[in-house]
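[step 3/7] fold_predict: job queued, chain A
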Amino acid sequence: MLIQTQSPTLHHLPSILPTTSHFSKSVSFSLHPHLSSSTKSLKKLNFKLSNKNPLLKTSFQALKCSVSSVSELTQTKVLVKPSPAEICRTIMELSSSGTLSTVNHKGQPRGIGVQFAVDAEGTPILCINASNSQFLNQNRSSLLVQLEQRGSRTIQCMVEGELNKPEDEVVLKKLNSIWERRFENEANEGLIYTMSVEGVVQIQDSKEECVTSSEYKSAIPDPLRDFAENIVNEVNMNQMEDFERICKIYLDTGFQVTDANLIWIDRLGFDVHIRSPQNEIFEARIPFPKEVSDWKGVKSSFNCMSQHAWEVDKGYVQSDFEKSKHNFWNLLINALIYDKLEEGHGNAITSANRACEAVG
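[step 4/7] structure written:
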């Protein structure tokens, strides 16, 4: 059972992980969940709070977990990762541009860059320049959208369907309203198109997951999406000692983790990149003890996991959960890319063989 924190009382957000005598010194920060920040920035981030979000008017006291209470944590059986449909809806909500592909008059495949917004069911709304009107004679089309994350990781979503030109004025005004909320400017109603969703493909690490139209439309975008990137930046810049301890305790690696980076976070857990003493990079997934839906839930889960990891690391308690496995195949990829480029073909073969031995 997770520890409950007291009700928030102050007017700024502290750092995610707790400040206690046995943790590294934490740095407090203020965060607006609807602002995005570059994952490449190495400077300390400062964000102003918005009065529009009642959640962010408050702060949370540092969680104080006693040894006896944290030792009673039980692992709730939950999903480890969002479904491909949920991932696709999240990508479409966070992105605003993609590549529209179809076939021209000559039967040749063509692609153009477009901006888009989505309605409540994730249906793409596009405003296509008049100069590309000849490009839209074929109804069968696809829209490829990608979301770049930390660690040079990119996840993609491809929506397949037909382009439609709405004529009803009421419908056009509704679509224009959605467009204006997304881009803060009106669209030319004569250039607005919608794309029916007949099928969706979620792509990551060269793996494809097919999603049906009904699965896509009924899926809910991740509730942490608007401030996930800011959490990633805060942990990687200011909380590395505690975060590396979490990776050490919650992952079954078989080696000493020399470096860890938070890549992305969602309602069910977070993705990390870890480095071995041989400078090999792996990807792993660490689930939360239970699902979270807001900033308060993220903070509470991180605090308890950090406290419990410290107690296990010091030998005060035994871990009472099943550790996550890292992705051995990431080693093979890194061996072929990094070793071959930096140290020569021989090292790449050696590391690749070591990867194959690791997976049996």
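[step 5/7] annotate
The chain has nine helices and 13 strands.
The first helix runs from residue 67 to 70.
exit 0
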